[in-house]
Amino acid sequence: MFEIRPEAPADEYEVETLYDLCFAPGRTALSSYRLREGVDRVADLCLLLRDQGGFLQAAIRYWPVRVGGQPALLLGPIAVHPTAQGEGLGGLLMRDSLARARDMGWARVLLVGDAPYYSRFGFARLEGVEMPPPTNPDRVLGLELQDGAWAGIAGEVTRETGAETTSALAEDAAPPHIDATCHETRRPRDGQDDDQTAAGAAPDQRSERS
User: Fold this and answer.
1) CA distance linking residue 4 with residue 202, whole number of Å
2) pLDDT digits (tens, 9 = 90+) for 152-174
3) Read out DSSP for 50-119?
4) Where is the composition biased (Basic and acidic residues) (predicted)?
5) Which of 74, 103, 123, 201 could join 118 in a cystine, given CB atoms 3.0 to 4.6 angstroms apart?
6) Whether the predicted model's global pTM rises above the 0.85 cut
7) Contact between residue 65 and residue 159 where contact means Cβ atoms under 8 Å apart
């Protein structure tokens, strides 16, 4: 049995330790971290998966961004403890968090990752969407949580300023709760490529690389 619940401020050190374990050194140098710097996570979508003993087995985080001026979710990082990879825990977190995002009124999700893996969740390559360099455009993937949400959306992916996020969601949907206490503690460094492999990741259950 596993428990999925939102990440709390007290979980920060444990989650960062899991990411350090699963990803190669220098993960905070990835270009996607520039979009996260100084921006609060979408706290209701930052989820942890623990086993019966309370041990952290997997974690996923989301940030708000803008694509061509339109709101979107940036998914990642997602990581599964090396001893639990291959058990489908990453997929469980993906499906649970995406369902929550849809219920909250988010329309579109963006990530940087391997298309053969993320296509099973409905992600496909985005044409004309530009992540900060250096990013391989073949790894820029998107998912529609509402029909046609990516239609006509193109341009640069930029940091969310904060004020416009909730007003851009569906009028009848609950806005995302962005918790100021749930913040990224590490600063990105420029000049490295996004193509980074998660250490110890199994081919069918690799940690998201972004």
Assistant:
1) 22
2) 999 999 999 864 443 344 333 33
3) E-TT--EEEEEEEEEEEETTEEEEEEEEEEE-GGGTTSSHHHHHHHHHHHHHHHHT--EEEEES-HHHHG
4) 180-191
5) 123
6) no
7) yes
